[in-house]
Amino acid sequence: MNEEKLITDRFGNENPFRVPNNYFNEFPQRIMRRIEHQRKRRRIIRWSIAAMLTGCVLSTTFLMKSINQKNMPLEADNSQYIEDALDYSMINNMEIATYLTEAE
Hints:
Oligomer: single chain
Helix content: over 70%
């Protein structure tokens, strides 16, 4: 009680806190503007993330295809080389199959 008396003696019974004019009348509109601003911001962020992920997927797909295309000619060249070597050595498929079954 003694503390309350000191405060009232020093500051009086008047409320020291003030609210700007029409604060509570404009409060709902300000809150709604903030909510709408946050919704727009979230929408922009979501679309940005979606665009970045799409870009990553497309660039990864492009890189993988380019790597596979670089490796494909080598595999085709190797198989062509093997076929040419077998043709020149005059080994037929039956001899190859016999050799493979005997090796097992």
